[in-house]
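Usage

Read records sequentially. Each one opens with the input sequence:
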Amino acid sequence: MEILNTEVTYDIRKLRKGEKVESFNCGDADLNDFILNESVNYRKALLAVSYVVEPKDEPGKVLAYCSLANDRISITDFENKTAFNRFRKYRFVNEKRLKSYPAAKICRLAVHSDAKGIHLGTDLMNFIKSYFVMDNKTGCRFITVDAYATAAPFYIKNGFIPLTREDSDSITRLLYFDLADIAEDSEE
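and closes with the structure output:
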């Protein structure tokens, strides 16, 4: 996929099997370590797949990345059955009330320190949303993320909603985005 961001065009692509990112610094040691050292192992173990954003004229220069895996939203994510029932009653007709619903998880998402402020994070988020709406191979209703509390405002600005109030004072917050909110506007 191609992103046109003011004067520079960016490509978003899936890292190839065994491909290692050589340089990346977003200012967070854990996020840096994942893309530099762990993403190959996660791909090899079939646990997550990483995507990178590169300037079209500088392939190999990673300015942002995300790592995606399968997930679900289930009754165990809520403080009680009543809270789960409220969640699903709002979104599903009676025939579709299951005990869990398919989701994709954003395991990691980071923007290189040199690329902050040009909205690559939001562009990458829009790519992820459209990727699962346009190319929904197995059925995926939600996108989830265990966001650092400091990053939660970014996700909320991009349409994510806290799943519960239980983790409001935690280091991370479980947030979700309902793909049905944009699926109606998209053609398959």
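Summary fields computed downstream for this record:
- The radius of gyration is 17 Å.
- The chain has five helices and eight strands.
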